[in-house]
Amino acid sequence: MSGAALDLSAERVRHPEVFRGKGWLRWLLLGAIFAYLGYLLWLFDFVRVFTDLPRVWVIVRLMVDWTQIGTWDHAELWRSMLETVAMAYLGSMLGMVFAVPLGFLGARNVIPRRVFHFLTRRLFDGLRGLDQLIWALVFVRAMGLGPIAGIMAIAVAETGILAKLFAEAVENVDRRQVEGIVAVGAGFVARLRFAVLPQVLPVMISQTLYSIESNAREATILGLVGAGGIGLRLSERIQINAWDQVAYIIVLILLSVAVIDTTSRYLRLRLIGVANR
After folding, report:
1. Under a CB-based contact definition with an 8 Å cutoff, are residues 101 and 162 in contact?
2. How would residue 90 be classed by pLDDT, with cut points 50, 70 and 90?
3. How many domains does the chain have?
4. 201 and 97 in a common domain
């Protein structure tokens, strides 16, 4: 028996009032957790998951039946898929363009004023605090149906996310490089250009490429609210119960995400390698 176990046993004998009731309290807490779990299952009528399973299997059988694949409008579906990828790319790049200056402004070691730093960070929270789907609903209402609403929704949300990440990267730069540039008489802009930017550029490239990859998935959801792309086609097929085409669209989405993931990883390694030279 270890020393810790012996000490605990000795303390249990010496002060039994401290350890008395601990086991009951633990069992009472576990009982409350499982009771609450059971209440939630009853509240949401979870038993329907089992009673409705036959309907799920019917949909699954319809999804794997591709006997009518020759009659589908493949050109429309592929065009919509490319539109979704374009939405993700444009939205991410716009977000990056706005996030770079905001990231420098939001870094404490660039502008040390506490009030300005607080307001800038709250701006980042406001932009990224709302999901892209909510932004898409706003822009669809303002600009109408189509990919422009999706691009703007992605751009606004990504501006907040990337700006926060860029600001944190700037705050974590090696100060010795900055001090070396300052020692030779470099000004504020030169200090950012030659001492800070080379250090944070790999992070900016990596995060931007990842945002494009991530938004390629998110853009499919934006189409469900009218922001264009493959999500709109997916919504249309679900409404008319064309489950075989729904499965085909899902396969297109998965293939596109896989290609974007592979390409993004390759570019990330190549570009970051160049940036680090």
Report:
1. no
2. very high
3. 2
4. yes
Q: Are residues 29 and 165 in the same domain?
A: no
pLDDT in tens, 236-246: 888 888 899 99
- Please report whether residue 149 resides in a domain: yes
Q: Around Cβ 209, how many Cβ atoms within 10 Å?
A: 22
Share of the chain above pLDDT 70, in %: 90
Task: Write out the residue range of the structural domain in which residue 228 sits.
Answer: 63-275
Q: Is residue 51 part of a domain?
A: no
pLDDT at 22: 56
Same-domain check for residues 33 and 91:
no
